[in-house]
Amino acid sequence: MSLIPHDDVFALHSDTDITTLFLYRYLLDKPDPVHNLYKDIEDLKHFPERIDGSYRAEWTTYVKRQLHKLKQLDKQQQQDFWSRLSQKMQQPQQDRDLCAALEQIQTSLKINASDKVSVIKIPVKTYIEQLIKL
Fold first, then answer.
1. CA nearest 113: which of 18, 14, 13?
2. pLDDT tens-digit map of 100-123
3. Could you say which DSSP state residue 34 is in?
4. At 90, which helix (H) or strand (E)?
């Protein structure tokens, strides 16, 4: 899902890595009880598999919706967003919350990629997964 700057900066591409997608999601975040980004990151400590599963789809949908809204704003507001995005991508360490979230994402990705780590199915986890599927 990388943005295509030379065509339409608001078009998403399907090959964006999860970290870049998260940066968009982080910068476009609006307070919403249904889509709580901080809760998503906190949940990764217990459900690291979500980073490759449901979060990619959820964040993609959210980013697309917010980019569409951004496209409706004036050029200065759009430029402010692109400037903030560029700064966060180049210097994420300047934002403590962003840094912590990126570290959790990297940890989750490593867990998911490891042959030495497996997810243990406990009754509560199975129950939660069944609720999510509803």
1. 18
2. 999 999 999 998 888 776 666 677
3. S
4. helix 75-90
Residue entry with tokens 């599963």: 53
**Residue 14 burial (10 A CB sphere; 0-12, 13-18, 19+):** exposed
Distance CA 10, CA 2 (A): 10
User: Residue 92 burial by CB count (10 A; 0-12/13-18/19+): exposed, middle or buried?
Assistant: middle
- What tokens does 133 get? 């599927």
CA atoms within 13 A on the CB side of 128: 9
**Range with lowest mean pLDDT among 88-92, 110-114, 124-128:** 124-128
Residue pair 98/38 in contact (Cβ under 8 Å)? The answer is: no
Question: Can you spell out the DSSP letters for 71-87?
Answer: HTS-HHHHHHHHHHHHH
List C-alpha distances in Å: 15 to 3, 19, 33, 83.
10, 12, 29, 22
Closest CA to 97 of 50, 33, 29: 29
